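Working notes for the structural subgroup meeting. M.R. asked for a predicted model of this chain before we commit to crystallization trials. I am recording the input and output together here so anyone reviewing the notebook later can reproduce the run.

Input as submitted:
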Amino acid sequence: MERVRRILVSLGFYVVMTLIAVVFALPLVWMVLTSLKMGSEVMTIPPTFLPENPQWHNFVESFRTVRPFLWNSTYLAILNVVGLLIVSSLAAYGFARLNFAGRDLAFSLLLSTVMIPGIVYLIPQYILFQQIGWIDTHFPLWVPRVMTPVVPTFLLRQFFKTLPRELEDAAKIDGASTFEIYWRIMLPQVKPGLAAVGVFTFLDSWNDLFGPLIFINSIEKQTLPVALALYQGEFFTQTTLLMAAATITIAPVILLFIASQRYFIQGITLTGLKG
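Returned structure, recorded in token form:
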């Protein structure tokens, strides 16, 4: 009887989770299917779910429009991910594995900066960037994010603290320097944490609308979120093209998650554990 009860509970759990997944996935599926419809199909009542004749040229036309913005978003996301992983992993290793005076105080001060809303220092930041000639360049969209990785440093520090001290001791006996221990021994052990931080950083950069609107003036230097907003104004009545552009925008995010799903889930699950 107890076994039957456990089976029924598990079955009910999976049914509920499946329904929730369907609810969350339905808007995405609707967007993709709408991007393949003709304009007349979008306005039909009652609405149709599947396109009668898939219009693949909608993606071709939308890609021509968003291609320059796609490149800007891509290379900014790469800069942010690579730069932030390097800086945050170095800082996290120092806070987790090195002993120096004031380490805990410095880490507490670092975490306290999370309490300051970004909007508070937006105007001083804008004035500073204007004085050094960074307005209408891509520097404000990656340098501050890379050089102030507070939350990524905290997450990776938790991973480094789970590693056994014997790994470092063995490497020191073999004559490895501190940087060699970090790069060759410790960093490969925290791949799940790096994957989680990398995915979150990519999403943060890829979806950033506020930064480009504030710091970028030239259309050719804008990113995909701004391009979609402009695209919506230009092709407001052409819903199929707008949905095709949105699908193109979200496709890299989905592919990234699929590629790093294994490490990403491990990173989220293990964050905060300490052996």
